[in-house]
Amino acid sequence: MRILAFESSCDETAAAVVEDGRTILSNEIFSQVALHEIYGGVVPEIAARSHLEVISLLADRALEKAGLGRGDIDAVACTYAPGLIGAVLVGVNFAKSAALALDKPLIPVHHIRGHIAANYLAYPDLEPPFLCLAISGGNTMLVDVRGYTDMRILGQTRDDAAGECFDKSARVLGLGYPGGKPIDDLSKQGDDRAYDLPRPAVNDGNPYDMSFSGLKTAVVNIVHHAQQTGAALDEPGLAASLCRAVSEMLVGRTMDAAKALGYERIAVAGGVAANSRIRADFEAACNKAGKALYVPPLRLCGDNAAMIGAQAYYEFLAGHTADSSLNAYATMEL
Ligand code: KG4
């Protein structure tokens, strides 16, 4: 089954063709980073307008790269939640029109389910159940993936997402937007013990819930203090200490959950899964605990439409299709 899939929840417009949930036939991405960079973050209205300008072109390119015509497509899928509402709406409306024009089923996909499904593309043998840590710019959650469409959130951030913590820290350091990659790059020249950063814990019941706003504030305060007093700032050391703190918070909880629930397979997904410290720490922890680790290649960690096409296949098999009354949602339960 060949699915033409769209992703437009934030600042990447993407179209892809995926076969049977596992094989990428094409995966076209237009990044809007250059449009938002000057503002230090994503401007929702600019994002929506840009999606509108390029989505049709990307759809044609995805078909062309796959070597397919419109008649070769069996279904159309799109991210319908969560995300910037104006941005998600563009993809939903385009997908609705395409499904109507092609007279094919329309499959709505939850963005985070899509991130998790990036692992099905990278690891054709991976099947649920497994534990997945989904870490992106807007979400941070530990998910019990019981089936392809049967998931339970074990814990999640109570405030900022891990990606947001990287982005805001990078902003105060003048590293631009998005900040995860520049922080990652800078951290490689730094001492990860240069700064003693907090690892905020949530102490009211759920051991798998997380909090990143205190860590972000600690970094902001260190930078502001240095700016105001003229004290020396070890930027690579701060970046390395931040990567270490975020990684320890994420890897520790994930390994605890895997042990408590008896999971032998651990997956990581989302843009922050590109972080080299987090990847290395997961590898070491899984090796030590004798667990299998699944982390998508960098090109499938960030937002893309292939992951939406992968999850869409399993949503279709579960009977989860929509008609032209489908709406977009800024927030949505997993
Ligand atoms: O999954 P994604 O592309 O978009 C969302 O669905 O949010 O994730 C984007 C996030 C941003 O916060 C970005 O700074 C972060 O992923 N990111 C990284 C790295 N590359 C991207 N964070 C840490 N280290 C990286 N190498």
Summarize the helices and strands and which ones pair or pack.
Blueprint: E1 2-7, E2 12-19, E3 23-31, H1 33-36, H2 44-66, E4 75-81, H3 85-102, E5 106-110, H4 111-122, E6 130-135, E7 140-147, E8 150-156, H5 162-172, H6 180-187, H7 213-229, H8 235-261, E9 265-269, H9 276-289, E10 292-294, H10 298-301, H11 306-317
Parallel strand pairs: 1-4, 4-5, 6-9, 9-10
Antiparallel strand pairs: 1-2, 2-3, 6-7, 7-8
Helix pairs in contact: 2-3, 4-11, 5-7, 6-8, 8-9
This protein binds 5'-O-[(R)-(carboxyoxy)(hydroxy)phosphoryl]adenosine (KG4).
Care to describe what's here?
With 334 residues, the chain is α/β, with parallel strands linked by helices. The protein folds into 2 domains: 2-115 and 301-317, 2-Layer Sandwich (Nucleotidyltransferase, domain 5), CATH 3.30.420; 127-298, ATPase, nucleotide binding domain (Nucleotidyltransferase, domain 5), CATH 3.30.420. Helices cover 45% and strands 19% of the residues. The chain has 11 helices and 10 strands. The chain has helices at residues 33-36, 44-66, 85-102, 111-122, 162-172, 180-187, 213-229, 235-261, 276-289, 298-301, 306-317; strands at 2-7, 12-19, 23-31, 75-81, 106-110, 130-135, 140-147, 150-156, 265-269, 292-294. The strands form 2 sheets. It has a 5-stranded mixed β-sheet with strand order 3-2-1-4-5, sandwiched between helices. Strands 8-7-6-9-10 form a 5-stranded mixed β-sheet, sandwiched between helices. β4, α3 and β5 (106-110) form a beta-alpha-beta unit. α4 packs across α11. The structure holds 5'-O-[(R)-(carboxyoxy)(hydroxy)phosphoryl]adenosine (KG4).
